[in-house]
């Protein structure tokens, strides 16, 4: 069991920011990732539909064999975390609770902003989790759907992007927040641009990065952590799947992780099943 990979899933590229933290904080662990780019973005979809997709991706990862599941997607966490915890026999971690805890720790003026997808706003899960722990904090949840498109369409460096970020973050700047949760795993890819717009006095919280600290603690708790010795004998592996265009996903991931040999396999959506045709 200990040698099995950790499974990560997201609607597309976003969850790779969580995997990046896993590779940094847990280099002895193998990972399997699936990005559902064919059906991204999840944010504007009804949460029941997102839940259905998350369950399909989970089923696919469970069939590959994993020891822990990370829903590396805030919208997916809002839609499916509670049910999946009851339904699958391995530990399941979402990205909302760790980010919320970290925001409570960092805020000094008790005013926290959360930027996320429409689905995550509608669930109000950030507000609920934060205020259940600290009722004196005011939480401003704000949807910025264009940011996911900017990342998926790889438009971060384009000149108009900075203007879009400024306009979309304007309502939050009015609220005098001192802490801003990047409540969508795509957003850390635009972290520098967001920080520039919010200014140096606002602390940005990367929910995904915080989540990996939780994963690390849980692996220890359940006696599932691999050691450096394990890694010397049997090196950790990385396996990537996408329901979208494999070549585009591969290029993006290779650049992000600076691993020119990294491979991404395409998975086909057939009815309610995801089918890996790479070995047939
Ligand atoms: N990266 C995802 C999240 O954290 C989903 C973004 C989307 O597909 O809209 O919410």
Which value, in Å, is the CA radius of gyration? 18 Å
How far the N terminus sits from the C terminus, by CA atoms, comes to 27 Å
Strand content: 15-25%
Question: What overall geometry do the principal axes of the alpha carbons give?
Answer: globular
- CATH architecture descriptor of the largest domain: 3-Layer(aba) Sandwich
CATH topology of the largest domain: Rossmann fold
The CATH class label of the largest domain is Alpha Beta
* Bound compounds: D-glutamic acid
Strand order of the largest sheet: 4-3-1-2-9-10-11
How many domains, as an integer?
Answer: 2
Oligomer: single chain
Number of helices: 12
User: What is the number of strand segments?
Assistant: 11
* Weakly predicted, low-confidence segments: none
Mean pLDDT: 96
What is the topological layout?
Blueprint lengths: L5 E5 L5 H10 L5 E5 L11 H18 L3 E4 L2 H14 L4 E2 L2 H11 L4 E6 L1 H6 L1 H9 L4 E6 L1 H8 L6 H15 L5 E4 L8 H8 L4 E4 H15 L6 H6 L4 E5 L3 H12 L6 E7 L2 E4 L4
Parallel strand pairs: 1-2, 1-3, 2-9, 3-4, 5-6, 5-7, 7-8, 9-10
Antiparallel strand pairs: 10-11
Helix pairs in contact: 1-10, 2-3, 4-6, 4-10, 8-9
The site of D-glutamic acid (DGL) has 17 residues, from helix 3.
Overview of the molecule:
The protein is α/β, with parallel strands linked by helices. The chain has 2 domains: 6-94 and 209-276, Rossmann fold, CATH 3.40.50.1860; 96-207, Rossmann fold (3-Layer(aba) Sandwich), CATH 3.40.50.1860. Helices cover 47% and strands 19% of the residues. It has 12 helices and 11 strands. The strands form 2 sheets. Strands 4-3-1-2-9-10-11 form a 7-stranded mixed beta sheet, sandwiched between helices. It has a 4-stranded parallel beta sheet with strand order 6-5-7-8. α1 links the parallel β1 (6-10) and β2. α1 (16-25) crosses α10 (207-221), α2 (47-64) crosses α3 and α4 (96-106) crosses α6 (125-133). The longest helix has 18 residues, at 47-64. The protein is globular. The relative contact order is 0.19. Bound molecules: D-glutamic acid. Residues 10-12, 14, 40-43, 73-75, 117, 120, 148, 184-186 line the site of D-glutamic acid.
